[in-house]
């Protein structure tokens, strides 16, 4: 939900999704081609500043969304520091440090490219772009249903928390643990019931297996695509120059 709210509040909300996707794709390719830490630093800085200064994504939202994948990356890098020695015993090893550094820097750059896309493009715009790219309709429908169910679960959670708080369900540690257990047990039932209601509403609207959204017009799409291509070419030039 934080990602979606940031996308709607972004200054690039009305920029053509194809232009933003082209810019992100160029960032991915450049991050894959680059080799040196300097090139990775330049690419990451360009992608992060584009989101923070260009799209005006709030810094706290950007950090909040980036922390989970960065934590997963840190855990992965730490596990790569352990390996067997000549006697078969597992110890901390430094032989993998160059590989870890390369993977971490590349992941930082690719993560910045991905965040720049998702934090500036609402899901309906992404779905429209994916539909133009001939993505299977079944996959798009699953994305929409998962997207909708996130809001259903959040609404059920907020309503249950409010009801329990009004009944002093979190007045003490013992009551808080009991309320949390009851909440976990009731969430499955409530989400199931609301999902069934969502299916009933779809059937009442003669759902035919494909979810459609009204298309959005982008009058300056050509100019935006040209700007994205120019910025992407700059990143590719940095990556290719690093390989020479």
UniProtKB/TrEMBL annotation:
The keyword Cell membrane applies. GO terms for cellular component: ATP-binding cassette (ABC) transporter complex. It is a multi-pass membrane protein. Pfam families: CbiQ (PF02361). One of its GO terms (biological process) is cobalt ion transport. Keywords: Cell membrane, Membrane, Transmembrane, Transmembrane helix. Its main location: membrane. The keyword Magnesium does not apply. It is found in: Cell membrane. The chain crosses the membrane at residues 12-32, 38-55, 62-83, 103-126. Belongs to the CbiQ family. This is Cobalt ECF transporter T component CbiQ. It comes from Duganella margarita.
